[in-house]
Amino acid sequence: MNRNYNNNINPPKQDSSIIFSVTEISSLIKEILENSFKTISIEGELSNFRPASSGHWYFTLKDTKAAISAVMFRNRQSGLNFIPKDGKKVVVTGAISVYEKRGTYQIICTSMKAAGEGDILALLEMRKQKLAAEGLFDLDKKQKLPLFPEKIVVITSATGAALRDILQVLERRNSGSSVRILPAVVQGDKAAETLCQQVLFANKHNLGDVIILGRGGGSLEDLLPFSDENLVRAVAASRIPIISAVGHEIDWALTDFAADTRAPTPSAAAELVSAQSLELLKKIHTVKEFLTSIITGRLSHIRLLLKQFTAERLQENFSRLMEPLNIRIDDEKNILLRTMANIITEKRHKLELQKNSLDANSPLAILERGYAVVSDAETGKTLMVSKNTNPGDKIHIELYKGSLIADVKEIKS
90 with 158, same domain? Predict the structure, then answer.
């Protein structure tokens, strides 16, 4: 008997005269279920969670009265902000699929989120807006991390992986800082209170130069203590710079906004507090090599120059330096001598002319020719005419060489 139910998803009318094969009834059930539940969301508790080697997840969703098989393929798992595990309450979205060979049905999940996340996100958004309006997240209030933190305070679970990761990074990077651990509960009802108390305690007793506050990854519900209002206020008011390192990179909490710096993971926070000193040491090493290279080059150049300043080279260089100066001095000397000789010749010529003029006008020259100068012996007045004297007067006769004193005996006109 050939029966076709492809265009009819409603169950056939009950008729005991119609006999189905197992394949036929399985196909009919498959068609009815898959066409009726193409997209559906189911809330339940994870059970028997089995990640396969292929990367696919196989698990059961259950509540107090029923269970349904489920599978989530590897390519649908990106974007989850928590790690699924047994007992976790989730909401999955997908389509119902029937496996005819076994006569079983399951839901093929396309997405998964923690149950109640929508309410939590709405609560966190309201709290975020409130605290932001109060200025707790303002950037101008952020403190800079110290360059060389000598004391690092870590507030986290004493037994958690986050603490081990932080200590391993600090040891590997050889930061040279001392670490003070303030253990705290990081999940559950008491977590926010203990975290807040440890932040206040670290500030009260000034226990460190920087605080790392955080934990490992978890669901949004697991990370809720780090969005507690009192803790956020304590972080914002901290005098010691705080790094918020909550969960994995995709996780977030309100302490991320209130802290001075946010690190995507606890390991990244440890790298931040040690990176400052390492970067500075690298820069110092680079500058040291640069200066050493420059100084070495300068010294080599100086040594090369100093080789030119031996006693012999200095004398030779000095001689070369003085040669043009000596030549110039000789030239200037010759010019000076010639100029002085010309001046002397010219002056001598002028002097000769003056001498000749003086000689021509000198009384001695006249006397030399036989003339004499007669003057009154008493008055010394030169006698130009004979009437200026009287017989018996004494007169003085100046000759070319020597002079005479004579008495006047007779006067002739």
Answer: no
